[in-house]
């Protein structure tokens, strides 16, 4: 029997508000979710409060280098987005 691979999503602003709600909704539907935001502690809280696989990636989306590094981390973990 083959095991299906989860769909992978990246959610920015995942530490609070709409971003947190979107991340929780995706994880509850079986997605593996990369949680991006500026504060690691709030991202960790988002990941710990939800079902499913997540990856905490502190990054400021206004910084191109940080965004590139974030996607490198996602690809290293799951191999795709």
What string gives the helices and strands in order?
Answer: EHEHEH
Radius of gyration: 12 Å
Helix content: 40-55%
Q: Give the low-confidence spans.
A: none
- The fraction of residues in strands falls at 15-25%
Structural class: alpha/beta
Number of helices: 3
Strand arrangement in the largest pleated sheet: 1-2-3
Largest sheet: 3 strands, parallel
In one word, what is the shape?
Answer: globular
Say how many strands there are.
3
How many angstroms does the end-to-end distance come to?
24 Å
The residue-averaged pLDDT reads 93
Task: List its salient traits.
about 45% helix, 3 helices, 3 strands, three-stranded parallel sheet, alpha/beta, about 20% strand
Account of the protein in words:
The structure is a single chain. The chain is an alpha/beta fold and 81 residues long. It is built from three helices and three strands; from the N terminus they run βαβαβα. Strands 1-2-3 form a three-stranded parallel sheet, sandwiched between helices. The longest helix has 15 residues, at 64-78. It starts with 7 loop residues before the first strand and ends with a helix. 28% of the residues are buried.
Task: Give a brief rundown of this model.
This protein has helices spanning 17-28, 40-48, 64-78; strands spanning 8-12, 32-37, 54-58. By secondary structure, it is of the alpha/beta class.
Task: Describe the secondary structure blueprint for this structure.
Blueprint: E1 8-12, H1 17-28, E2 32-37, H2 40-48, E3 54-58, H3 64-78
Parallel strand pairs: 1-2, 2-3
């Amino acid at each position: 029997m083959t095991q299906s691979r989860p769909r992978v999503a990246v959610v920015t602003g995942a530490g609070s508000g709409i971003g947190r709600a979107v991340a929780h909704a995706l994880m509850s539907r079986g997605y593996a979710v990369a949680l991006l935001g500026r504060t690691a502690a709030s991202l960790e809280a988002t990941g710990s409060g939800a079902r499913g696989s997540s990856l905490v990636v502190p990054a400021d989306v206004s910084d191109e280098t940080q965004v590139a590094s974030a996607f490198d981390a996602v690809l290293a973990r799951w191999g795709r987005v």
